[in-house]
Design goal:
Layout lengths: L1 H13 L9 H10 L6 H11 L9 H27 L9 H10 L6 H8 L12 H9 L1
Length: 141
């Protein structure tokens, strides 16, 4: 609940006229107040993109969805970077050998059989390697 209250406070700061909605002009002023630059057209397009009920304004729920979504995009981007560190160069998968190599760089000594055992519970298609979706599952546990 605390996070929702923080969103509500920020939303109310953006909602200059207090009508419970953020219009494109309020969004533009808000972005400028934090040092950003956005044209009226960009603000209009952003509101249209994020508006869930089609009224041309952002509700608190729209605002929360956008903020939470941005966090998810950042997490996905971080996971992709981590995956690239572990995968066999350009193969699109993490093999027991590539996992062993990365763990070794991190100071963890494992043999290939131990790495196979680490991969096995998350290897959903049984091919002996981890693709990105399997890696995401592994990292969420």
């Amino acid at each position: 609940m605390e996070k929702y209250e923080q969103y509500d406070r920020v939303f109310n700061r953006f909602d200059a006229n207090g009508d419970g909605k953020i219009c494109p002009l309020e969004l533009q002023q808000c972005v400028r107040s934090i040092g950003g630059d956005i044209t009226a057209e960009q603000a209009e397009a952003a509101v249209v993109l994020m508006d869930s009920d089609g009224d041309g304004l952002l509700s608190l729920e729209d605002f929360v969805r956008v903020v939470e979504g941005a966090g998810e995009e950042e997490k996905a981007s971080d996971l992709k970077e981590a995956f690239k560190m572990y995968e066999l160069e350009g193969s699109g998968c993490i093999t027991p050998k590539s996992l062993r190599r990365m763990l070794s760089r991190l100071g963890e000594r494992r043999n290939v059989d131990q790495c196979k055992s680490m991969i096995a519970p998350f290897d959903l298609n049984g091919d002996g390697v981890l693709n990105f979706d399997e890696f995401k599952l592994m990292m969420s546990c």
